[in-house]
Fold:
Amino acid sequence: MKSIAEHMADILKENGYKYVWKGDIDLIEECADRAQMKTLHPLRRINNVLAALDRSSLFEKKYLLACNLTGGSSINRRFRCFVLKDKGDDSN
Structure:
């Protein structure tokens, strides 16, 4: 049985992507579906998938800096981003 991180790695490779972040809802939902997590609340699914990637040696955690528009002001905010490691990367 594959782990959540292995499912996400497969999804990223199938779609030609290198990373995933909280805003990639379609990718996260596909991963949750493959990992049979669909009975959980959507926010819990998102957080569980990202937490699994954070713990996995298949991914490296980085951050995206983006503008978070809130009402009349805009604030720069860091969002976790998980980059799929190359197979040749043996840093962990």
